[in-house]
């Protein structure tokens, strides 16, 4: 959620796809949040809506609890996961599986599974299945109409666009790549048959998975004049080298040494085998080129099949730092649209405030696990009193072996990173962060980005065409190179089509272009260094210990390097 999102809503906003504007004067989603009135500004937040039912994407805690209770009671077996049905029928009443089943304010497994299936897992609207079996995705917590879980086996490819263009393209390309590789394998069947025949080598005594490869089993020892043994003893290469020693029996001294090497007797590949390999390579290159063209077409199909705010909006990437008033932005962009501008969102560089709000939300959710439902978190004394009583009750309870082992091993490590904190520590941090937020709310923040949403797609296209400018014109603010009607407060605006709303990273919007490039290049160099270092280790292992151990090391690096690169990506900053 943004702290300062100034949105101007005109008549007809209810016709805007999947959007509904609700005015709020509080930070967050419940009645226990902080009133940001010291800023002197009013917060408006756009709520994401489902096109079919109008159910809010963001709900108050009480409403979410009501949804969970309703789903836990009314869900039919056909709409449940098999794990939920198994737990509810056989394990829920077992103390060894669910030790807290008799606690008055303890967790409820039925509600937990209902939340998992209706808020975490993806579901589709049962009543809106189209003729081509394309399932429309339901909003998390949808309860006004019947919904079902997506099937992992029978969900059509055209439906995957509901999860985003990237998801749809990924599975589309995955299927086509599988077909392309199968085709390449079929092309190489003549070579497989040749390598398994006696014409090349007898492969009866090798592994089944190695049959059909170019492994040669016909070998003989031959004299190798001038050969030297420069490999590690015991390695695979050392097994293909031998020395015979001639000893003078009379004097007991070495007379001469003869070096031998193990040579393959299999024939060299003929032109026919080479042409088969070449044909498969050319086929794959042509297929990849065609897949690139097909991917662009599928992207357009997925994009047109799912209308979002991106199709009606533009983003201003270099707004004046003091341009807070959404009314001025509305008047400026109204000249490009026959109908009105639907909304204007002004984004500020309040990343520190947003980080604290996110931290507070995490602490609040963790704290609620130790408090009764609908407990007022504004009453600090009552919260501390209740947590103190909870800790006293917890001290009298017996702890199991698993709890004792985890408390001595894993939990202390996780607590260093802010996980599994004791409730008294959570309370202290919660109110400390609350005071920090109050101080940050008093600061003044500059405008970093502006999102403008039109009533029609034509308005978006007209604005993009009219405000199109070269990079040098934008960087130099050459207002004399642009029509007067496109200048906003003495500035040439950098206007583009925005990303999808759910891809915007609000905590990174303040980071400059140079900083982003420097961090990206740094992570790239670190990644290249890791890959090169691992390659050197694999080569050294292969040379000294043999190909078997180098294969093990390669497999280990293939599993570890992606995890390391994923951690390195935290060093980068991307606005979306």
Which terms summarize this structure?
576 residues; alpha+beta; 12% strand; disordered N terminus; four-stranded antiparallel sheet
- On the 0 to 100 scale, the average pLDDT is 79
Q: Distance between termini?
A: 15 Å
Largest beta-sheet characterization? 4 strands, antiparallel
Low-confidence stretches: 1-58
Number of H- or I-type helical stretches: 16
Task: State the order of secondary-structure elements, H for helix, E for strand.
Answer: EEHHHEEHHEEEHEHEHHHHHEHHEEEHH
How would you sum up this structure, described in words?
It is a single chain. The chain contains 16 helices and 13 strands. The protein has helices spanning 61-74, 82-91, 109-120, 165-187, 189-196, 271-305, 326-334, 351-368, 380-395, 401-408, 410-415, 423-440, 457-466, 471-476, 513-545, 547-568, and strands at 19-23, 44-48, 123-125, 147-149, 219-223, 241-248, 253-264, 313-316, 341-348, 447-454, 487-488, 491-492, 495-496. A hairpin with a 2-residue loop joins strand 11 and strand 12. The chain is extended, with a radius of gyration of 33 Å. The protein starts with 18 loop residues before the first strand and ends in an 8-residue tail after the last helix.
